[in-house]
Design goal:
The complex is a heterodimer of chains A (about 325) and B (about 500).
Chain A (H helix, E strand, L loop, with lengths): L1 H22 L6 E4 L5 H17 L5 E3 L6 H8 L7 E6 H9 L10 E10 L1 E6 L8 H10 L5 E3 L6 H12 L5 E2 L5 H9 L5 E5 H7 L3 E6 L4 H6 L22 E8 L4 H16 L1 H9 L3 E2 L7 H14 L3 H11 L1
Parallel strand pairs in A: 1-2, 1-3, 6-7, 6-8
Antiparallel strand pairs in A: 3-10, 4-10, 4-11, 5-8, 5-9
Chain B lengths: L1 H12 L2 H19 L5 H12 L4 H26 L11 H9 L3 H33 L5 H18 L4 H15 L2 E2 L6 E2 L13 H20 L16 H7 L2 H16 L5 H15 L11 H25 L5 H13 L5 H6 L1 H32 L4 H20 L2 H19 L5 H23 L6 H4 L1 H41 L1
Antiparallel strand pairs in B: 1-2
Helix pairs in contact in B: 1-16, 2-3, 2-4, 2-16, 3-4, 3-9, 3-14, 3-17, 4-5, 4-6, 4-13, 4-14, 4-16, 5-6, 5-13, 6-10, 6-11, 6-13, 6-16, 7-8, 7-19, 7-21, 8-19, 9-17, 9-18, 11-12, 11-13, 12-13, 13-14, 14-19, 17-18
The chains are: A alpha/beta (about 325), B mainly alpha (about 500).
């Protein structure tokens, strides 16, 4: 009797679950994206469009920049946990800002749907730069002339800034970071020789690769070096940043806030995996220089956990840079 | 160079969406321009929230077409009702209204539309020839040059703003202060956010412009009364022969368009000043038998070609440098930033297709203006009969829906209403609103580039004099400030002397 009752309850639960899943989604699902428009947003839009085709409702990408990505997280966390808000969980607001004490959440406070994309970055100088031919030569110059070189990593306190500061710290090189709100402005100053070096992202390299000389790819993955025309990577130079795998790169997972009903999470997980697996979606993402990631939700802790650990353990290279510059 | 950009933009322009939206923009611009009190700026502001969700070239086509249609639409009410729909058309009524009195209303409107379209096309040629040149000249501009350019923009706008210099400076400064709200890029610290996460990136520019311009304008329309008045206008049908009538004044057309395009490219000088100037020149050079002021065709040709050529001229610094000349282009820059492309030399170097697409939609909107304008004039005349009691609620609804839809944020609605209130107060006290918006747009440009320059510099402020272009701009800025101070001091001294003379007279009695 008990088993019959149990199975009846289970069946009922399953059927209502199925009914609820069928009811979802009934309206627009928003993807809260933490940066201003640009290449990375175009990539998110490609995937959002594919999910929208699968779901039958529109999935607009809402650009909500501010406070190194944390504004987007706060915006999403202040909306009802009903599955109608997806967070584009970039590493900076998800892991880095909590490590820096600028946000009071951890990656465990969110429910992952699927991993999305990664993009490597590289350190480059303008084409025709004749002061140094290699990264090591530049570092030797920098050590001799502390505080003299100027570089950009886009905005400040982002992942490229932290990774660059860490790499420079290893060579005892103190350089001045110049923040830019628009990547194009920083790249223009790099090309014009106003800046000495800078972080060049994949999109910029694909568009104007001949105007840069890439000195160092900040990733140990061979495919990243390949994207940057086979330039030297941290592995080639034997640089140990204390970062492996995804840790020195930009990446995002799409996720929802805690307390989102499980059946809705299931619908979104299923659809995101399907959308990401579509060949034309893969091609479009790769064409923009981004690498679609294959990890499903159940590998979230396994992949993101170590990154959080490594970023925490690498120490605050940003603090070091600030202190050294104050001494100049 | 010019052909390359145009060819690159052809693909983005030749889509049904871009072309249809451009035509729609012209129609909407004509309607909003014809309605008294609402001009091209208001049209752009109202449609901004909807445009930013479109592909870049379609969105810019829509907004620029509104500017083009709006710059012409004001002439309809100027000619028929003797009320300029926009200040741009104020000079058009000098000869347009007398023409209508003489039973030539259809001809006057036809000439106004033809002159607008032809003047606009002339402005387009100027835009296409000069913007890429200016952009390539500016391609090695760095933070010091942008700091000085932002300063030039701010000074010029304050100097030529309507009303007093002091009031222009005050609202400009309010704009600069508003621009400081949010996260500081350099220290990543929060400024004036009061612990509210919605303010971490400052206020949304669309919520600001909709509030400050549209909400306050609607409030002043309500206060103006006459909500149920229905002006008595008769149907008017201009024909295409008015194009020939306009072309007969080809010298006037070329001259006025040149004045318009040149004035448009200067910061702070808008279409109103160019149309009055073009009218003054045309009148001075006319023969007495032309009868300027009593219904001369040339008067309408001069003002309307000038104010539409201004749009093309104004787009030159907007696209090539990213520096707005007046409020409408400031809002267009805001739209471009939201759409994900940054006006300036990098736009021409990296995304020539977008720059070329914008050129093409601008040209096309003027062609569309000619045909749509002449064929659909009866519609715009009918619009004039709309009662304010219907119009105002519709506009307010558009404002609220559009602003909310940006980020589906209720906070943005509150910001819109807050700025609406500020706009009402400032209007009531006779302060110009445009410098505020320009301050908000130029504020971050000025602050960030100044701080960037000083970080890059190894010898402090000397970086502004070490670079030749930056040094030239420093001199221009000093001259502008010196000139403005001189003019203000002189008028102050005159005002002080006046009571003195009165007093001496009293004493002598």
């Amino acid at each position: 009797m008990k088993t019959i009752l149990n199975s009846a309850i289970t069946a009922l639960a399953l059927s209502t679950g199925a009914a609820a899943a069928q009811d979802f989604p009934q309206r627009t699902i928003e993807l809260i994206y933490p940066w201003g428009p640009g290449n990375a947003m175009a990539v998110s839009q490609i995937l959002a469009k594919a999910m929208s085709d699968e779901l039958g409702v529109s999935v607009p990408v809402i650009s909500t920049p501010g406070a190194a990505g944390t504004k987007a997280f706060l915006t999403a966390m202040n909306k009802p946990a009903d599955g109608y808000t997806i967070i584009d969980g970039y590493v900076a607001p998800l892991v880095l800002q909590p490590v820096l004490g600028k946000a009071d959440w951890t990656y465990e406070d969110f429910i992952p749907l699927h991993s999305a994309f990664s993009n490597a970055f590289a350190l480059g100088v303008r084409a025709g730069e004749d002061r140094w031919a290699t990264f090591e030569e530049m570092m030797a110059y920098c050590k001799e002339h502390p505080g003299e070189l100027r570089y950009t990593s886009g905005s400040r306190n982002n992942l490229p800034h932290m990774v660059t500061a860490k790499a420079l710290q290893g060579y005892d090189c103190v350089a001045q970071n110049i923040p830019y709100s628009a990547n194009a402005e920083g790249m223009s100053d790099l090309k014009n020789g106003v800046l000495d070096f800078g972080i060049v992202n994949v999109g910029e390299f694909q568009q104007a690769g001949d105007q840069y000389n890439i000195l160092l790819v900040l990733s140990e993955l061979p495919e990243s070096a390949e994207i940057f025309g086979g330039a030297a990577s941290i592995t080639d130079l034997g640089i140990d940043l204390g970062l492996s795998g995804l840790a020195p790169m930009g990446w995002d997972w799409w996720m929802v806030t805690k307390d989102t009903p499980q059946d809705r999470v299931d619908v979104l997980r299923d659809v995101m995996a399907k959308a990401l697996a579509r060949p034309e979606v893969q091609d479009k993402i790769k064409a923009l220089g981004f690498v679609p990631l294959k990890w499903d939700y159940d590998q979230y802790a396994e992949i993101v956990g170590p990154v959080a650990g490594q970023l925490e353990a690498m120490g605050n290279a940003l603090k070091w840079e600030e202190e050294q510059l104050a001494k100049q | 160079m010019f052909a390359d950009a145009l060819l690159a933009g052809l693909d983005l322009f030749l889509t049904p969406q871009s072309m249809l939206l451009t035509v729609l923009g012209v129609v909407f611009g004509l309607v909003i321009g014809a309605l008294p009190g609402l001009g091209p700026l208001m049209g752009i502001v109202l449609m901004l929230p909807f445009a930013v969700s479109l592909p870049p070239v379609a969105a810019m086509g829509f907004l620029i077409a509104i500017a083009v249609g709006g710059s012409c639409g004001g002439s309809v009410s100027a000619i028929l009702l003797r009320i300029p729909g926009t200040p741009l058309a104020a000079a058009t009524l000098f000869d347009g209204y007398p023409m209508a009195q003489k039973g030539r209303a259809a001809d006057a409107i036809g000439i106004a539309i033809s002159a607008s379209a032809l003047g606009g096309l002339f402005g387009g040629v100027v835009l296409i020839l000069t913007a890429p040149l200016l952009a390539s000249f500016a391609s090695n501009f760095a933070p010091p040059e942008y700091t000085m350019l932002a300063l030039t923009g701010l000074i010029a706008i304050a100097v030529v703003s309507e009303g007093s210099l002091l009031k222009g400076l005050i609202t400009g400064a309010i704009g600069l202060l508003i621009a400081t709200i949010g996260t500081d890029e350099f220290s990543t610290g929060y400024r004036f956010t009061f612990g509210i996460f919605d303010m971490l990136n400052g206020f949304h520019i669309v919520a600001i412009v909709v509030g400050i311009f549209a909400i306050s304008e609607m409030a002043s329309q309500v206060m103006g009364g006459g909500l149920n008045e229905k002006p008595d206008v008769k149907a008017v049908r201009p024909g295409f022969r008015t194009v020939w009538m306009t072309l007969k004044h080809w010298k006037n057309l070329l001259r006025s368009s040149t004045i318009g395009a040149a004035f448009g490219a200067l910061p702070g000088v808008g279409g109103t000043i160019s149309s009055f100037s073009a009218y003054a020149v045309a009148k001075a050079l006319s023969k007495p038998e032309e009868g300027y002021g009593a219904g001369a065709e040339g008067g309408v040709v001069a003002t309307e070609s000038a104010n539409n050529a201004t749009v093309g001229g104004a787009l030159v610094p907007t696209l090539a440098l990213g520096i707005p000349g007046e409020a409408a282009t400031a809002v267009l820059i805001g739209a471009m930033l939201i759409l994900g492309f940054f006006p300036g030399p990098a736009l021409f170097a990296n995304q020539p297709d977008i720059a070329g697409g914008v050129f093409l939609v601008y040209l096309f909107s003027n062609v569309a203006l000619l045909f749509v304008g002449i064929l659909a004039t009866p519609v715009f005349v009918w619009v004039l009969k709309l009662k304010k009691s219907y119009l105002i609620p519709v506009v307010l609804l558009l404002c609220a829906v559009g602003t909310f839809a940006l980020q589906s944020s209720v906070f943005d609605l509150r910001v819109m209403l807050g700025f609406g209130l500020l706009g009402i107060l400032l209007r009531g006290a006779g302060y110009p609103l445009a410098p505020l918006v320009i301050g908000v747009i130029l504020g971050p440009l000025l602050e960030n580039n100044l701080r960037r320059s000083l970080l890059i510099s190894r010898e402090g402020y000397w970086i502004f004099l070490d670079r030749p272009v930056s040094a030239t701009l420093v001199v221009i800025n000093l001259l502008l400030i010196g000139g403005a101070t001189f003019v203000t001091m002189r008028s102050l001294r005159r005002r002080r002397q006046a009571p003195l003379v009165a007093r001496t007279n009293d004493a002598g009695r």
